[in-house]
């Protein structure tokens, strides 16, 4: 019986801006029962714009300036979906994503920031680099730095920043400082400002300080000019003057993403969502917006991060109040706010109304404020308490056949799936059982896998689970043919269950289609958590099997994927895994073993297994026992996923780690190597481990590498070693 309160409504947050990270933090501290919260972001990390100049200058590292959204969401119990949004269907309340199934919502909040409005300048979308999104600008800046010839450093580069506001000046000075102090690149800097004075929104003393400071550094300032067009290496101004440029940074007035207005939301003339005093869309009350995404009415606000930060608390309260059908809290913007503007070096200027203060201590003051802000969103792992008076007392759910997903939900999902066919399938979907007519003269190969979800993204989980399940087929040297699926969906409100089932099935089908594998049926049921399993079928020509009995003395042991998925997933469950580590691990979990198996066979492999739940040593011992051999492994040759060693060193372990270690003949190993614990780490959708004749190893590894695998020779089958023993060397 399942007495866990089901989800009743979907709250979706689009964008990882400053307002939304505040919502996530507050929600994690006091969640609302029966509400499923999802963050949709096109990147795992969101930058804190206030620290961008310091990052460019070299005062900060990437980790100092970016909030790890995946880690923060894991801590807060919020689903994280990495995808870009392309459209909203405001009638059906659906979010249309780029290369991801549509998402439903009952309540929606948008905080996607802004970007320079380049569409008004001919050629600007093709030439030069907008300072927002920050991640893209940094990538382009570093690419440009690496592209500047080091053999001709006497030839100055022309760097032009377009935009005389705070963003343009701070980025310009940061780039200038970096080149002066960290490279041998010589450059001429030019600042173009359309206004009469730079920093038009600041007082005269601030303007004069920066004007004089730029002049002292030899930076040319062009005011009362607008860029009318851009080419690869030149800018044309409205005065008729042209400027040669090697690097162009766009920091012009803010523009909105076009899909906001295209979706039918009431927007201002620049495309930003018009919101009332409650940060609620004036045209669609179930949609909220904050930060640069919003056009506050009746009096518009400047596009400044300080407003987004202050709006976070009000936005959280109003989202919760809407869900509880309570009165909303008005947002009251401050009339004046403090700006701390950096000068490239560890020096800054404070500006507020008529206030002007400058000095090194101002930079350290700003540094303290910024780091304290960032620390709020790197919370230590904690357990939240969902037991509140608002819990929904749902009646106990039945087991047995009463726990099947309803026919209505199942039919709606199946009608939206594009399921391929195969001439070998006499009867499949719709019948009580599939009838298969295997090809003549081949063996029929079958395997089954089933496990709980390890990530809160059902589409991604479906893709990885299907890939994992096909691993046994490929490890046998077989060709994947068809599959039956078993899926368990957490009980929730019907529309939420339907979406979850649709997403996990679309994920599984994406993998099956990529692997030319037909879905021929399955079973769905209710449970306490999402789970998926596949019964995979394959075909194999007689005499072509890669069994565990085929190892020979002097074979080299080749591993086709790095280790570490178990420890990284365990760290993620405790909100201790960096988002980029997990993103990288997912890339390998989605990598098919099909091509690797073909390559291994082509280079003489006779024995193979996929490295999964029992870890590298557990599966190697199975091969050694079956083949009556021993082996020697080299720690330093084993490929390891980024972050796995760090998490392991902190004592993070998968729940299966201890059992895997105890069942190994190496559990009494007395030496020390950082990679030792990873030998027992259970792998999800791990790589293949195969024995290849030594004379074929070099060419085999080259073929695997050329195809995209991180493959390595990790040891040898040792004829002098005792049977079923593994010797560990550096």
Q: What features would you highlight for this structure?
A:
single chain, globular, 60s Ribosomal Protein L30, Chain: A, FAD/NAD(P)-binding domain, 4 domains, 730 residues
CATH classification class of the largest domain: Alpha Beta
> Order of strands across the biggest sheet?
33-35-32-36-34-37
CATH-defined architecture of the largest domain:
3-Layer(bba) Sandwich
In quaternary terms, these chains amount to: single chain
Give the terminus-to-terminus CA distance: 51 Å
The share of residues in extended strands comes to 25-35%
Number of E-type strands: 37
Structural class: alpha/beta
Q: How much helix, percentage-wise, in residues?
A: 25-40%
> Count of helical segments?
20
Report the major sheet. Answer: 6 strands, mixed
Integer average pLDDT: 88
Overall number of domains? 4
Broad shape: globular
Whole-angstrom Rg: 29 Å
Weakly predicted, low-confidence segments: 382-404
CATH topology of the largest domain, by name, is FAD/NAD(P)-binding domain
Brief overview:
With 730 residues, this protein is α/β, with parallel strands linked by helices.
């Amino acid at each position: 019986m399942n007495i866990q309160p089901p989800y009743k409504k979907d709250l979706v947050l689009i964008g990882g801006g400053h307002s939304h990270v505040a919502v996530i933090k507050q929600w994690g501290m006091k969640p609302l029962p029966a509400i499923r919260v999802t963050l949709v972001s096109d990147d795992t990390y969101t930058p804190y714009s206030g620290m961008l100049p310091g990052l460019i200058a070299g005062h900060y590292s990437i980790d100092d300036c970016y909030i790890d959204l995946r880690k923060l969401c894991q801590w807060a119990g919020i689903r994280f979906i990495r995808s870009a949004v392309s459209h909203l269907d405001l009638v059906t309340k659906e979010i249309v994503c780029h290369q991801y199934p549509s998402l439903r919502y009952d309540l929606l909040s948008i905080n996607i920031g802004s970007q320079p409005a380049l569409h008004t300048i001919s050629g600007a979308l093709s030439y030069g680099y907008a300072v927002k999104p920050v991640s893209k600008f940094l990538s382009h800046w570093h690419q440009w730095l690496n592209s500047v010839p080091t053999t001709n450093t006497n030839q100055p580069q022309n760097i032009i920043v377009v935009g005389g506001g705070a963003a343009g000046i701070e980025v310009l000075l940061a780039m200038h400082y970096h080149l002066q102090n960290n490279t041998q690149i010589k450059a001429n800097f030019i600042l173009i400002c359309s206004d009469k004075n730079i920093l038009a929104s600041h007082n005269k003393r601030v303007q004069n300080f920066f004007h004089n400071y730029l002049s002292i550094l030899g930076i040319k300032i062009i005011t009362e000019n607008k860029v009318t067009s851009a080419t690869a290496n030149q800018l044309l101004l409205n005065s008729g003057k042209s400027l040669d440029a090697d690097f162009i940074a766009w920091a012009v007035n803010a523009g909105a993403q076009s899909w906001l207005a295209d979706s039918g939301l009431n927007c201002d003339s620049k495309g930003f969502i018009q919101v009332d005093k409650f940060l609620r869309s004036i045209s669609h009350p179930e949609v909220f917006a904050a930060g640069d995404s919003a056009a506050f009415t009746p009096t518009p606000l400047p596009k400044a991060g300080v407003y987004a930060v202050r709006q976070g608390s009000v936005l959280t309260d109003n989202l919760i109040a809407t869900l509880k059908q309570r009165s909303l809290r008005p947002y009251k913007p401050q009339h004046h706010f403090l700006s701390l503007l950096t000068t490239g070096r560890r020096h800054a200027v404070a500006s507020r109304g008529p206030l002007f203060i400058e000095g090194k201590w101002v930079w350290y003051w700003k540094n303290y404020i910024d780091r304290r802000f960032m620390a709020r969103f790197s919370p230590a792992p904690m357990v939240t308490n969902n037991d509140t008076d608002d819990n929904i007392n749902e009646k106990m759910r039945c087991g047995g056949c009463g726990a099947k997903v309803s026919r209505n939900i199942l039919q709606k999902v199946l009608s939206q799936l594009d399921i391929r066919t195969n001439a070998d399938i006499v009867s499949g979907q719709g019948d009580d059982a599939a009838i298969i007519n295997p090809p003549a003269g081949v063996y029929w190969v079958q395997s089954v896998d089933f496990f709980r979800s390890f990530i809160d993204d059902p589409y991604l989980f479906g893709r990885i689970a299907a890939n994992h399940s096909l691993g046994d087929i490929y490890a046998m040297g077989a060709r994947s043919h068809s599959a039956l699926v078993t899926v368990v969906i957490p009980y929730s409100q019907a529309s939420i269950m339907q979406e979850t089932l649709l997403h996990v099935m679309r994920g599984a089908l994406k993998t099956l289609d990529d692997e030319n594998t037909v879905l021929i049926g399955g079973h769905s049921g209710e449970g306490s958590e999402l789970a998926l399993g596949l019964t995979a079928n394959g075909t194999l020509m007689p005499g072509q099997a890669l069994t565990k009995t085929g190892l020979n003395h002097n074979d080299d042991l080749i591993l086709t994927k790095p280790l570490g998925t178990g420890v990284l997933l365990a760290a993620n469950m405790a909100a201790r895994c960096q988002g980029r580590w997990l993103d990288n691990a997912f890339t390998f979990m989605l990598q098919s073993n099909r091509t690797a198996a073909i390559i291994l066979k082509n280079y003489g492999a006779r024995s193979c297994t996929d490295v999964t739940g029992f870890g590298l040593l557990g599966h190697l011992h199975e091969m050694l026992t079956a083949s009556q051999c021993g082996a020697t492994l080299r720690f330093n040759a084993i490929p390891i996923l980024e972050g796995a060693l760090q998490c392991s060193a902190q004592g993070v372990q998968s729940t299966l780690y201890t059992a895997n270690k105890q069942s190994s003949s190496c559990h009494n190993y007395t030496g020390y190597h950082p990679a030792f614990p990873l030998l027992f780490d259970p792998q999800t959708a791990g790589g293949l481990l195969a024995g290849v004749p030594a004379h074929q190893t070099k060419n085999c590894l080259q073929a695997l590498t050329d195809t995209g695998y991180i493959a390595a020779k990790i040891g040898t089958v040792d004829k002098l070693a005792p049977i079923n023993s593994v010797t560990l060397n550096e």
